[in-house]
Amino acid sequence: MNKNHRAPSNRTLSAVEVKSKFGAEFRRFSLDRSKPGRFDEFYGLLQHVHRIPNVDLLVGYADVHGDLLPINNDDNYHKAITVAAPLLRLFLQRKEEADYSAFGTDTVTRKKTPAALAAVLLRPDATKKKAPIIISLPKDFRPVSSIIDVDILPETHRRVRLYKHGQEKPLGFYIRDGSSVRVTPQGLEKVPGIFISRMVPGGLAESTGLLAVNDEVLEVNGIEVSGKSLDQVTDMMIANSHNLIITVKPANQRNNVVRNSGGAATSGSSGRSSDSNTSFYGFSIPGSMAMAPSHIIQNYEADEESEDEEDLVLEPDGGAKSLLESGAAARSTASSSMPALPRYESHLELRHANGTVASSSSTGSLNAHTRRNLEEDGTVITL
Amino acid sequence: MLNTGTMKRFRRHGHESQRDKHKQDLYQFNKTVEHGFPHQPSSLGYSPSLQLMAIGTRSGAIKLYGAPGVEFMGLHDENTAVTQVHFLPNQVELVTLLEDNSLHMWTLRAHNSTSELLEIGRFTLSGPPGAPPSVTRVTAVLAHSSGELLLLGTEGGHVFVVEVPGFRELEENNISMEDVQSRVPEDYVGRRNLECVEALHENPLNPRQVLIGYSRGLMVLWDLDRQRPVQHFLGTQQLESVWWMEDGGNILSSHSDGSYCQWTVTGEDPQTEPEKQETPYGAFPCKAISKVIQLPSKQGPPFLIFSGGMPRASYGDRHCISVIKSKTHEALDFTSRIIDFFIIREGENQTGEPSALVVLVEEELVVVDLQTEGWPVIQTPYLVPLHCSAITCSHHVSSIPLKLWERVQAAGAHQNTHYSTKPWPINGGQNLAPDPPQRDLLLTGTAGVFHTDADPNDNMNQGSEGEWPPFRKVGCFDPYSDDPRLGIQKIHLCKYSGYLTVAGTAGQILVLELNDEAAEQMVEATVVDLLQGQEGFRWKGQARLDVREEPVLFPPGFQPFAMVQCQPPAVVTAITLHSEWKLVAFGTSHGFGLYDYHQRNNILVKCTLNPSDQMALEGPLSRVKSIKKSLRQSFRRIRRSRVSMRKHHTNNAAKLQEINARLEAEALQEMELAPVQRKIEARSSDDSFTGLVRTLYFADTFVSDGTHSTPSLWAGTNGGAVFAFVLRIPPQERRAEDPLSAQAAKEIQLMHRAPVVGLVVLDGKGAPLPEPLEVAHDLARSPEMHGSHHLLVVSEEQLKMFTLPKVSSKSKLKLTAVDGSRVRRVGVAWFGSKTDEQLESSLVVLTNQGELHVISLPSIKMLVHYPCIRKEDVSGIASCVFTKYGQGFYLISPSEFERFSLSTRWVVEARCLVEPPLQMRPKNPSSPVWRDQSDGVATEHRNFNKESGGFESSPNQVMEHALLNDERVLQEIQKSLEGEQMTFLENNLKTTPKAGNVLSNGD
Fold it and tell me: Mean of the pLDDT values across residues B278-283?
């Protein structure tokens, strides 16, 4: 996916327009997209252009979805540069006055536009509550997992979605054969089952804290595993590895989500993380739009369908001879100008697909389809 | 309201049932016939009256063969080895003895004018209460010539008499060991313990007298009517077999010390000394003679034929049958263990001159013509040892044009001059299957080369001088390869042009042309560097083969004329030939290339290797195998061999079972202790062998723009990448001079990165593009070039349709995500109903679960699926090939192909009739049932036989096995190709009694 994104942006202008806002002041300047430099240089530059050399700043930018995201290291700085299309809006705050709650995807749903965003930032100090305890911002902003379908699953089960997309971290777990006991009309019955047998240290599965050794795997992306061999289940998981949703029966049943949360208080990380809106997983960066859904997904089959990975198609550029030129050229211009590119379609579709897109088979009407969705949702896309 | 409701429901129902009916019309699954040689044969029987041969196997199968095309198969429920097969004389029944000591009665029952092999009874001897099991452990069986009695000799030395076919024990007729022992002279050494009954033989002149041979050497002539012995022959050597000569006056006995004795039946009791004793390969200790036969011959002295008896020290490891007639003496030297042999004699009652010696060895059937000078071998029309060198790949070609067929046959005949011209001597039964409407070829590539000395031709004159015993190699089974690099990995034959390309293990690709004349030519090698100058890699695998610098004489047949050598010389993993464009594309784990065999130069090289893929760089695939896996395998092997070793002791069936059970339990326990784990990890570009080229495809389609179609080459890799190249091919008249060129046009990286196993381009009507030259020969309609073409990419995980020329995903079928199965084999096939001329193309897919799926085109929806191969049978799944008309083959053992059909229209089945010998049997039109294959009409698939009376029209299927190893051995290819020519393997069908006829589709 990342590759997809890099591709069009490389073709656009080599300069990035920057519009930086500190308090009520705006500064405009431009950066060379191909040589953005390091974050500390950029930080110095900001201090310089705003003439606030000794002020500690918290730098944020508005991404394509209108989320306010922080810039505090080389990685997210480069990310910000690459996705700027072509304008990069920066919001600077004094560190001591910083409103951390402004960051994150929450901002998407509530205040979608940069204007709304700005409103938050410009909130009069009088109404401001006491500054929260300052914790350092996470270095890497991507959701790694979420618990979904809490409302439709039995409390003993947990449906976990692992976001493999666009990151290098291995999924990192092993499964094995085993046997479990089921309650049947005939009484207790021992049946074969599939279990998580090992976690790879540092892997995605381990880092979520939502899966554990000896959890029984019940479903893979909505398909029951009972009656399937270990190899089949392995293949199913690998086939879905870009967007793996496994339903498990945790070996440790004490951390289960309790649905009527008004009553019994939940403790433990899993309980909290079931609500991906507020969790620290909630941060989203562009380019990993697969993680954008911030609601509980109820019909992930449909979602999964539209969620599908994009294959990368390369066609020869300038070097290609006459035979190919026309086609390739047409394609490349299309990709840089039209928002209705395949990769963009899927992007949009993704963000608004939750349960609404029945299937992707209606390819012909895809454009209209996504556009309609767009309107319904009223999302403004910053391009 | 109600009305419309019901209407709607009705309509929907009607629609569905129509679709179901359509499916039923087109698809049905049948396992039809087996081709090849039975795996692990364990016993042999022959009925002179029916002229049928029976072969029992270690897995409990029993197969009957008569005239070519007459074939029956049965399977014992017990699945244990068939140790003996005996036809009841002059009956249609036969008795089998299994390793578990059970006896089974089978019969050939005519039904609807075809015969079926049916099991009609089973029986296990029950001894007196408290008797040890050895008392009833059967070691010898005599099917009495009356057809009503069965005499069973046992390990305990008793002979039980049983009435057949009902298996009623006639206790009063039993011959107990005590009866015999009491009459044996006091001073006879064998008196103490006679040991088991080794042989039972009937007096050829007086059926009421039988000869009982005991293991310790004693033979007793017993009168069945008077229930007393007539004469004792006091042999002193361990007895192996007995033979009653035709005159009734003499008996031959063979012994474990390598000697045989002749005894005279005088009626005087007892006879203490044999008339004559001889150790044919004597002086030094010899191995046992396990069977001896002597038959009179009108011309001069009799034939003496015996197996074994070789000098223990020097030739103890040979598998020999010696044939002696007067001064002619030959030791036929087989390459595998001898199971059994019998002699076919001339004449109505098979009592005349011995005409052929039929030998069943573990890996093949050899028939020696005893009436022609030099005793040449008669070529077998069935039971071809396909595995005479291990099968490494197969390639099926449907509807061979008559011309090519004849040329291949002629070339084969030319090379097979050393075979006897005698017709096939086993010709019982009638083949009623209609002549197949088309000729198909199945080519198999093998792991090695025939040793030329295994060929009868070369050894015909060998061994006459100075060598003793006078060995003569017979048979062609030889699994040992000279050099593994010669192994064939891929084959592609163009049936219209006669061009054949084969690719081997060491990166060599040969292009061969069918030539009716012998030719002497030099084959130049074009070296192609697939690494394309990538630096810092050292190939640690095998070296390339040496190319011969001098011209080589090639016999008529397929002759190589061009060769490509890939560098590094890694195994060739994909190959395809386009005879119209005269191009060959080939791929290895490093990349792929395109070779122009007209101008003899290489046009394109594309390196697909991921630079960090050390595994692919270093050497052959076998290195990848994990230590754990190989350890597990070797343990299994040891265990298996331990089991099979014990199996040889036939007496310990019970013990054996116990051991098996224990081993099984151990294995289970082991499994529970250390559960198998599977790692869940997304595929990555850094995985090993992502650059391995899995499939190559030529297509004339719209690659670059929607108005002009161009020739193109498509390649799919293990890492889910698809490459497309546009080819510029000069017009026909300038083809020899103008340069060809290839330009990169597309590159698709599938996100799921699963291996690409198939690429198909569909034309404007959604039908797959025809094969090269098919349109030119008017055998296919030309592709629809109006409307947009589509590219279907089949990966192990999903099928995905892309538009062309602009590649964008249109539809897909995610197989793995749904049921966890992965695509192993894929093919395009045409299906049609029996009544409708219309054919439609579908995709046939075999998964790693052994399931066959039929998938519609161009909509890629699953239509039907059938379980076909056990999912544990990995080699079976890997060996599967599909035909263009919905049939397929896979290996059920190293030596046998199972044939199946998914089509209702094309089913190859056995239909044959065997009538009881006592009734008037309609004579076969011409006794040597060599049906002339080549007079079939050159048919295309539409000319199928529409006879509706239950006869399925069956495409002629001939199995070819070709071994192409290097230029030097090319003649072997022809030889084997020709081996097919006489095999009507396709006739060689057998009824599989258990095969369900129509499996309803699972929908």
Answer: 86
Q: Which residue of A has its CA nearest to B797?
A: A239
Q: Residues B224, B225, B228, B231: is their CA dihedral positive or negative? A: negative
Q: Which sequence spans correspond to the domains of chain A?
A: 15-102, 145-254
The last residue of one of the domains, among B587, B607, B627, is: B607
Is residue B336 less than 8 Å (CB to CB) from chain A?
no
Q: Residue ranges of the alpha helices (H) in B731-852?
A: 815-819
Query: In this complex, do B820 and A236 lie within 8 Å of one another by their Cβ atoms?
Result: yes
Q: Is residue B159 part of a domain?
A: no
Using a CB-CB cut-off of 8 Å, the residues of chain B touching A312 are: 748-749, 751
Q: pLDDT tens digits, residue range A197-222?
A: 989 888 888 888 889 999 999 999 98
Question: Which residues 279-308 in chain A show a CB within 8 A of chain B?
Answer: 308
A322 vs B: CB within 8 A: no
CA-based radius of gyration for chain A: 23
**What domain range includes position B833?**
688-882
What tens digit of pLDDT does each residue of B241-279 get? 999 888 888 899 999 999 999 998 887 777 778 888 889
Chain-wide mean pLDDT for chain B? Answer: 79
For residue A24, what pLDDT band results from cuts at 50, 70 and 90?
confident
pLDDT above 60 for A94: yes
- As a whole number of angstroms, the distance between CA A349 and CA A364 comes to 14
SS (H, E, C) chain A: CHHHHHHHHHHCCCEEEEEEEECCEEEEEEEECCCCCCHHHHHHHHHHHCCCCCCCEEEEEECCCCCEEEECCHHHHHHHHHHCCCEEEEEEEEHHHCCHHHCECHHHHHCCCHHHHHHHHCCCHHHCCCCCCCCCCCCCCCCCEEEECCCCCCCCCEEEEEECCCCCCCCCEEEEEEEEEEEECCEEEEEEEEEEEEECCCCHHHHHCCCCCCCEEEEECCEECCCCCHHHHHHHHHHCCCEEEEEEECCCHHHCCCCCCCCCCCCCHHHHHCCCCCCHHHCCCCCCHHHCCCCCCCCHHHHHHHHCCCCEEECCCCCCCHHHHHHHHHHHHHHHHCCCCHHHHHHHHHHHCCCCCCCCCCHHHHHHHHHHHHHHHCCCCCC
Do residue B600 and residue B694 come from a single domain?
Answer: no
Q: Please report whether residue B184 resides in a domain.
A: no
Q: Per DSSP, what are the bridge partners of residue B792?
A: B760, B801
Q: How far is B821 from chain A (nearest CA, A)?
A: 6
B916 inside domain? no
Question: Using CB atoms and an 8 Å cut-off, which of residues 513-552 of chain B contact chain A?
Answer: none
The domain total for chain B is 2
**Widest pairwise Cα distance in chain B:** 107
pLDDT tens digits, one per residue of A151-202: 888 888 999 988 876 667 788 899 999 888 888 888 888 888 999 998 988 8
CB contact under 8 A, B820 and A240: no
Q: Are B753 and B862 members of one domain?
A: yes
- Domain end, chosen from B590, B607, B624, is at B607
Q: Name the CATH topology of A145-254.
A: Pdz3 Domain (2.30.42)
Selected for mutation to probe chain A from B678, B747, B794 (highest A CB count within 10 Å) is B678
What tens digit of pLDDT does each residue of B815-824 get?
A: 998 888 999 9
What is the Cα–Cα distance from B270 to B438, expressed in whole angstroms?
A: 67
* Assigned architecture for domain A15-102: Roll (3.10)
The token pair that represents B610 in the structure block: 């991921």
Which of B678, B683, B751 lies at the smallest CB-CB distance from A230? Answer: B678
Q: Does B749 touch chain A (CB under 8 A)?
A: yes
Query: Nearest-CA residue of chain A relative to B754?
Result: A239
Q: How far is A376 from chain B (nearest CA, A)?
A: 26
